[in-house]
Amino acid sequence: MSYKVSLSTEETYLLADYMQAAQTKKQTRRLLAISLRHFGYQVQDIARVVGVSEKTVTTWIKLFLEGGFDALVAFHYPEKRQSQLEPYTEAIRSYQKEHPEATLKDLHAWLAETQQLEIDYSWLYRYVTRHGLWKD
Q1: Coil, strand or helix: which one is 46?
Q2: Largest alpha-carbon pair distance within the chain?
Q3: pLDDT tens profile 6-57
Q4: Contact 115, 88 (CB under 8 A)
Q5: 7, 36, 109, 120: least CB-packed within 10 angstroms?
Q6: pTM exceeds 0.70, yes or no
């Protein structure tokens, strides 16, 4: 199902105010998604522009349609599951301090060997960069 967003003139000014007041990248991306949808962009194109999945864009649009800008800006994912790497955060920090010349590949091998953690390299890369845990 395709959700349409049609903003009134007043709502477009309100959107601009929210965009200026946005405090996080997440809020800015959500507001941008609503703006792009208002201007007729397809969900798949919006997803590419803001860097999220089509399902996420659809969730944001439905949230906006049901609760307006306030709901969209305040939204968080309470059901989002914890990363498999979360319990290893401190171990990763310690490893990097003890082995400053180690590569991410070395960390990946170390986690498998000493922590018995089998995880895709791409997930490890994403996690450590997103949380500022690894310096190249």
Answers
A1: helix
A2: 60
A3: 999 999 999 999 999 988 899 999 999 999 999 999 999 999 999 999 999 9
A4: yes
A5: 120
A6: no
